[in-house]
Amino acid sequence: MISNTVPNSLDRYKGRAPSGLSQSVQYLPGVGPQRAALLEKLGIRTVGDLLTHYPRDWEDRREITPSAALQAGTRVTIQGQVEIVDLLPVGPRLGVFKAALRDATGVVFVSWFKHMTPRYDVFATLERQIQPGGMLIARGDVVSTTAVKEVRVEEYDMAERRTHPETMLGKRSLGGRAEARKASDGILDEGTVCRASLTPAQAARPRLQPEEGFGMSSSYPICHWYRIVPVYPLSEGIDQRWLRGLIFMALDRWAAQVPELLPSPLRQSLDLPGIAWTIRQIHFPNSWEDKERARRRLAFEEFFLVQLLLGLVRKNHQAQMKPHRYSVHRTLLGPFRESSLFNITAPSSSCSPDSL
Questions:
Q1: What is the average pLDDT across 338-351?
Q2: Per-residue pLDDT tens for 248-285?
Q3: CA dist 322 to 1, 164, 314, 315, 316, Å?
Q4: What is the per-residue pLDDT for 54?
Q5: Of 9, 3, 5, 1, whose CA–CA distance to 304 is shortest?
Q6: Which of 101, 104, 115, 348 has the greatest number of C-beta atoms within 10 Å?
Q7: Which helix (H) or strand (E) element contains residue 159?
Q8: CA nearest 142: which of 111, 188, 115, 114?
Q9: CA distances to 105, 128, 328, 329, 336 from 345, in Å
Q10: At what angle do helices 275-283 and 288-319 cross, to 10 degrees?
Q11: What distance in Å separates the CA atoms of residue 277 and residue 92, rounded to the nearest whole number?
C-alpha cells in the first residue's frame, strides 16, 4: 500500500510543476465549487493531488460470473438482458426494486434497496434506466433467499436499450404510485423472487449467446468494467464511481506531465518503470503484476526521498557552527595517575588517551 499521508512528489516541485498539475480541481468537468470543497477534505486541491490520491484497494472485474455459477456470500460481476422488473415496499420506509436478468446460463435476480422519502422518488432513476430489453452489467454481493440466489447491486451500468416484446410490469404503490398488481400476477411474491414467476413467453425466449451481447462491450464505461478497478478512500458526499471516473479523465490528460524524480540510470539499474506509466498503472493496472511493479516503484521513490532528505539535514547540521565547543583538560586523571600506587594498564589508557 502506498501511503497517502507521505508528501507526494509534486509537493517538491512547487513553482516548477507544469501548469496543468497545479490547476484547481474546481475547474474540472463535473466538479464545481461544492464538490471541490468535498474533495479538499481528502487533501485533493489540484490535479496533481488528484493523480496522487492512490487507491486503498482494487477489484477484479475482468471476469463475468455466469448466473449458474453464483455462490452465496461472494462478490461478483454479472451481465445479461433485463427480462422483467418490479417494485414493492418491504417496510414502512423501505422499498426494493428488483429485476430478472437473463444470461447465457439462466436467470438471476438483482435488487436495489432504498429508504423512501415523501420529498422525492428515490426509485425514479432506476425505473427510467432499467427497463425490459436493456443490457445490464452489475457488481454486488450474492445472497440466498428462500427460493433463489440474488445479487444486491452496488454498482451498475446499462448499455443501449433493445426492443422487448413484453411491457414493463406494473408498479406497487409506494407513496403516490399506481395501485400494485396482485402478488400472484408478477415476479415478486411477498418479497421472494422465483424462476417460475416468468411467463411462458419469457421462459421460452432463446437464451442469448455471448456473441449476442454478453461479451465485452464498448457500450459500458471502460473505467468501471472489464478491468481491475481501483477503490479509493472517500469522504462524506463523494461517490466511489464518480471519483473513479474523475481520476480516469485526469490520468488521460495529465499523467504524462508528472515530473520524473528518479534519474534514468538509477531506474534502469533497478528495473523501475517511468513515473507516467507508474501513475497510470497504480490506478488502473492492466494486470496484478503491473500493479505490483507500479507499487514497488512508488514505494522505492518514497524511501529514496526520505533518505535524501535525511542526508541533506545531516549535511546542514554538520556544516553549522556550534555555539559551544568542548576541549579536554588534563586536570583530573593526570594528577590521579601520578599519585597512584598502581600503574594503569594499556587497555585502560587506550580507552581515553587524550585525558590521561
A1: 70
A2: 999 999 999 999 999 999 999 999 999 999 999 999 99
A3: 41, 85, 14, 14, 12
A4: 96
A5: 9
A6: 101
A7: strand 149-161
A8: 111
A9: 91, 96, 21, 21, 14
A10: 130
A11: 52
Whole-angstrom distance, CA of residue 156 vs CA of residue 333: 84
- Phi-psi map region of 176: left, alpha, beta (phi>0 left; psi -120 to 50 alpha): left
Cα-based distances in Å from 101 to 40, 125, 332: 40, 18, 94
C-alpha cell at 83: 427480462
Supply the pLDDT for residue 49.
Answer: 94
Taking residues 183-188, report their average pLDDT: 31
Task: Look at the block and give the residue holding cell 542526508.
Answer: 311
Q: What's the whole-model pTM score?
A: 0.69
- In angstroms, the CA 64 to CA 111 distance is 18
Helices 240-254 and 275-283: crossing angle in degrees, nearest 10, is: 160
The pLDDT score that the predictor gives to residue 345 is: 73
Write down all domains in the chain, each with its CATH number in brackets.
10-57+228-258 (no CATH), 67-212 (2.40.50.140)
Distance CA 103, CA 100 (A): 10
In the chain, DSSP finds a helix count (H) and a strand count (E) of: 10, 9
pLDDT band at 146 (very low <50, low <70, confident <90, very high): low
How many Å apart are CA 294 and CA 4, to the nearest integer? 15
Answer yes or no: are the C-beta atoms of 140 and 76 closer than 8 Å: yes
Highest mean pLDDT among 17-26, 66-75, 89-98, 294-303: 294-303
Cell of 341: 600506587
Q: Cα 258 from chain centroid?
A: 21
Cα-flanking dihedrals φ and ψ of residue 276, to 5°?
Answer: -65, -45
In this structure, the number of other CB atoms found within 10 A of the CB of residue 76 comes to: 21
